[in-house]
Write a structure and sequence with these properties.
single chain, alpha/beta, 28% helix
């Protein structure tokens, strides 16, 4: 049996639920369904269950623009974020549109029919289901949910303890009174170390190179003040959100215009927080601020456990695992009962599903991002990819608004299809994320991530203010995006240009 909807959304995480809500909020009048592989709402926030899991962006900008995040914490833990997404879905009647346990394996566009046909496997029964839709929206993020990045370490087969990756945290892992080594220096490692040190005998954070870390108050003092003043929640949220967007943008702009000053300010804050007994070389990266994503520690929790002696930090390279721990290239031995490989994630587009247009397979690496939302050569489709230098949701909200604006424009004009086609001069060699960050997962994702553009709406610059104008206000018929009608059956995507 084939089920048809106007809009088929892949993924019921932060982006997918947001997109569904916007379809209703913007009065598109379009039917929709969401295919979700997991058995619950939340996406990333349902997958990751390691100790201390929390956002790495402030909640006033990580929350949806249309639904206030009620709270004063700068960062929120995983369970609260998951509940916020689920409550949003309930409030907007989205939950009943979700088909859980469906793994999307293939989506095909037919120009003759002007339809997407999507195949999904019910992972509980093994049955294959078919869905057709006029539009397809990929809201799967860019993580491989099946496996994280897990390098093979020399001698690890000799280790007598347990090796764990945070992406697949064992529910029954007992680390009480155990010696733990956490390999990594990103947001996951920085979260795990203080969380595990509460019960472990000792936690060592082993990093190959340092990361920039910014200590911030756990409670947002301005949000606390507005709550005490009993400002309406919507107004407080809107005000705090605008302020934090401006601060995010200013921080990033400073790092680009004056990296030396930005570095000095960040390291001074760490020096004050960490105290005199911890070597600052562990917090002094070799790259400029925001060449990789900045990590935030609320109330300096990482620094507190380092000062207390319950945790320590080592900057070195692994020579080999041993039966009782890790031997470093310096010759130092780190004893361990449990080793956590917080080594990052693998990149994957559309949840690993195959995609084709009129029978021609499409490699996502060959696509070029248009306005950071649509992809060249993919008719009636969008892939939502959030910001790398700000909160993911800021871009997801804008992209969803733009998509709804596009749908309403098409209905008003009688169009049935759209497509953006890039020219060779529009295509840059790096991925749409590669120009912004040098992180390991960005480099590994180059094989599948769509390309960056060189000019105009093809160029992804990760600037909320620019994108807000581009996606909310700019002319939809800009001479690049082409629209078609069903009456042109032989050539369904016909040119309709304003220039």
């Amino acid at each position: 049996m084939t089920r048809h909807v106007d809009v088929l959304i892949i993924g019921a995480g932060l982006s997918g639920i947001g997109m569904a809500c916007h379809l209703s909020r913007e009065n598109t009048g379009r039917s929709y369904a969401i295919l979700e592989r997991r058995s619950a709402i939340g996406g990333t926030w349902d997958l990751f269950r390691y100790p201390g899991i929390r956002s790495d962006s402030d909640m006033l900008t990580f929350g949806y623009g249309f639904r206030p995040w009620i709270g004063t914490k700068v960062l929120a833990d995983g369970p609260h974020i998951r509940r916020y997404i689920a409550e949003t879905a309930e409030e907007y009647g989205v939950t009943r549109h979700i088909c859980f346990g469906r793994k999307v394996v293939k989506s095909s566009w037919s120009s003759a029919e002007q339809l997407w046909t999507t195949e999904a496997v019910d992972e509980q029964t093994g049955d294959t289901e078919t869905y057709t839709s006029n539009f397809l929206v990929g809201c799967t993020g860019y993580y491989d949910y099946d496996k994280g990045f897990r390098p093979q370490f020399p001698g690890e087969e000799n280790f007598g303890g347990q090796i764990v990756h945070p992406q697949h945290w064992p529910e029954d892992l007992d680390y009480r009174g155990k010696r733990v080594v956490v390999i990594g220096s990103g947001a996951t490692a920085i979260t795990l170390v203080p969380a595990m040190s509460e019960d472990a005998a000792h936690v060592t954070m082993l990093q190959r190179s340092p990361t920039y870390i910014a200590p911030l108050p756990a409670e947002d003092p301005v949000a606390v003040g507005m709550k005490k003043a009993k400002l309406p929640a919507a107004l407080a949220y809107k005000t705090g959100r605008a302020r934090n967007i401006a601060l995010q943008r200013a921080s990033f702009a400073l790092s680009r215009s004056n990296p030396a000053l930005s570095r000095k300010l960040l390291l001074q804050a760490v020096r004050v927080a960490v105290g005199p007994n911890v070597d600052m070389r562990h917090f002094s990266p070799s790259y400029n601020p925001w060449d990789q994503r900045l990590c935030i520690v609320p109330n300096g929790d990482l620094f507190k456990v380092l000062r207390s002696g319950r945790a320590s930090i080592v900057t070195d390279r692994i020579a080999t695992f041993t039966e009782t721990g890790i031997r470093l290239e310096s010759g130092e031995e780190l004893p361990a009962d449990i080793i956590v490989s917080a080594t990052g994630l693998n990149i994957q587009m559309l949840g690993g599903a195959a995609i084709d247009v009129d029978g021609t397979p499409i490699a996502t690496r060959d696509l070029v991002a248009y306005k950071g939302a649509l992809m060249s050569g993919l008719p009636n489709a969008m892939m939502i990819i959030g910001y790398t230098n700000a909160s993911w949701t800021l871009k997801a909200d804008l992209a969803a608004e733009y998509f709804c604006r596009l749908l309403n424009h098409m209905k008003a004009k009688g169009y049935s299809s759209f497509v953006a086609e890039a020219e060779d001069a529009d295509r840059a060699p790096e991925s749409m994320m590669g120009g912004a960050l040098t992180s390991g997962y960005i480099a590994r994702g180059d094989a599948v991530m769509p390309r960056q553009g060189r000019r105009g709406p093809w160029k992804v610059i990760n600037n909320y203010y620019r994108d807000r104008a581009l996606l909310r206000k700019a002319d939809l018929e800009d001479g690049i995006l082409r629209f078609g009608t069903r009456s042109a059956a032989a050539r369904p995507v016909v040119e309709s240009r304003s220039a």
